[in-house]
From TrEMBL:
<dbReference type="InterPro" id="IPR000182">
    <property type="entry name" value="GNAT_dom"/>
</dbReference>
<dbReference type="InterPro" id="IPR016181">
    <property type="entry name" value="Acyl_CoA_acyltransferase"/>
</dbReference>
<keyword id="KW-0808">Transferase</keyword>
<protein>
    <submittedName>
        <fullName>Ribosomal N-acetyltransferase YdaF</fullName>
        <ecNumber>2.3.1.-</ecNumber>
    </submittedName>
</protein>
<dbReference type="GO" id="GO:0016747">
    <property type="term" value="F:acyltransferase activity, transferring groups other than amino-acyl groups"/>
</dbReference>
<keyword id="KW-0012">Acyltransferase</keyword>
<dbReference type="Pfam" id="PF13302">
    <property type="entry name" value="Acetyltransf_3"/>
</dbReference>
Length: 171
């Protein structure tokens, strides 16, 4: 299965909604996403991503065999962290465990480091999300530590893990 990242298209809203209307996915993301996630929600998100400052927001659809199967983005931080970006991603459940997201992470990091002045990309998966931690490790990210009691998700106080990749670590 060939994985590629590409700019969003408004016609991707249906696939986006199908992937995000899954509590197993939403349980591993930050709060604020509507459930069920509708095609209208997808259209609004895609419109926002297409109109975002391209030096601040690097947002892409993840495709496998020409179908949108997920989303990935790097979001520039501010102030003293202005050359650092936070990575976020998800993939439709039927594509879990196939190496697609690892490849998408590698692709977006190479793109961001090539097209911007960013020197560091980090991700903070929930500590219980072993699959996401493994994606980051396979993509070359370094584990930096556990952020204890760092979030409240679904009414529970949880730990998060900090991973990062430096521009100097890309081959």
């Amino acid at each position: 299965m060939i994985c590629k990242i590409r700019k969003w298209k408004l016609s991707d809203a249906e696939d986006l909604a199908a992937a995000l209307s899954n509590t197993k996915i939403q349980n591993n993301l930050r709060d604020g996403l509507p459930y069920p996630y509708t095609e209208k929600d997808g259209t609004e998100y895609i419109t926002d991503m297409l109109s975002a400052d391209e030096d601040q927001t690097f947002a892409f659809a993840v495709t496998a065999d020409s179908k949108v199967v997920g989303s990935i983005g790097v979001f520039r931080q501010e102030n003293i962290h202005r050359q650092t970006g936070e990575l976020g991603y998800y993939i439709a459940e039927e594509y879990w465990g196939k190496g697609i997201m690892t490849e998408a992470v590698k692709q977006i990091c190479a793109y961001v480091f090539d097209k911007s002045d960013m020197i560091r990309i980090f991700a903070e998966p929930f500590a219980y999300n072993a699959a996401s931690c493994r994606v980051l490790e396979k993509a070359g990210f370094q584990y930096e530590g556990t952020l204890r009691n760092n979030a409240v998700k679904n009414g529970k106080v949880i730990d998060m893990r900090m991973y990062s990749l430096l521009k100097t670590e890309i081959n």
